[in-house]
Amino acid sequence: MLLKSTSLKWLGLLIAVLLMLLFMCASVIFGYTDTNWQMAIDAFKNNNGSNEHLIIQTVRLPRALIASAVGASLSIAGVLMQTLTKNPLAEPGIFGINAGAGFAVVAAITIFSLNSLQGFSALAFLGAAVAAIAVYAIGSFGREGLTPMKLTLAGAAIAAMFSSFTQGLLVLDEALLDQVLFWLAGSVQGRKLETLISVLPFIGVGLVGSFMIAGKMNVLAMGEDVAKGLGLNTVLIKITIGILVILLAGGSVAVAGPIGFVGIVIPHITRSLVGIDHRWVIPYSGVLGAILLLIADITARYLLMPSEVPIGVMTAIIGTPFFIFIARRGFNGR
Questions:
Q1: How many structural domains are present in the chain?
Q2: 183 within a domain of the structure (yes/no)
Q3: Angle between helices 234-256 and 61-85 (to 10 degrees)
Q4: CATH of the domain at 244
Q5: N or C: which end of the chain has fewer CB within 10 A?
Q6: pTM, whole model, 2 decimals?
Q7: Is residue 298 classed exposed, middle or buried when 0-12, 13-18 and 19+ CB atoms within 10 A define those classes?
């Protein structure tokens, strides 16, 4: 733990917030269309209707806000899942929650021809909930009950199943392939602010709820027997955590598609900075997750310019070595 005193933790959090704001500004400035800081300021103070001002207001600002919200949501969802399952590899992508939400959205488009933002949001939450319940149920089978290894295997199985279902639907409707393929890889490109606004209430509840239960999560992390002995209603807190994960992951998928590995990378980095106290881990993870996705999005614009790499590919490039490192350390290496 690098930041040991409370004052250092507050200072670190302030610096992280400032960095997040800096990268949000950079996300508004940098890209294929050449713009600068003065153009960005003028786009909001003295908009002249130019192409540059239009891109800044309607494309890049929503993109920066969406990347920040999704990065924070996925990181905090990873913290919640790792505490709930006592599995250092837990996160919405690995446990099939993203795949379940993604399948629900693709099924809505292909089968029901749904194109409303509210419908996407509702079905993304439904798909996330079905995947989460399935993983938890399968991981609980057997005499040993719920174990980190069984949860990981169950999550991989559910993720593969929903991914296969999604691919099957796309084969049946090839005309839809181009429309959803970039979304399925995870992307914030071309997303409108209305898309974020439609899921913001759910993501907001998930974020606020996570902050509110941080103290109880510290008790739960001590072990179920200890938590019960201290008077914690473990069943209620587990159900609450599950609902918050569904809200955060479902909202993120509805906006940006299934983006993986953010929920693994950021919680471990955060714990190395501030320790295991969730009252610090959750806010730090939210801010650092936003920074990671903003950096990934900015980088994705330049790798194959004028084309773009989906942001989900960027997080996979970053997260896969980290995943292997954590797996090699073993489940007792936290």
A1: 1
A2: yes
A3: 150
A4: 1.10.3470.10
A5: N
A6: 0.89
A7: buried
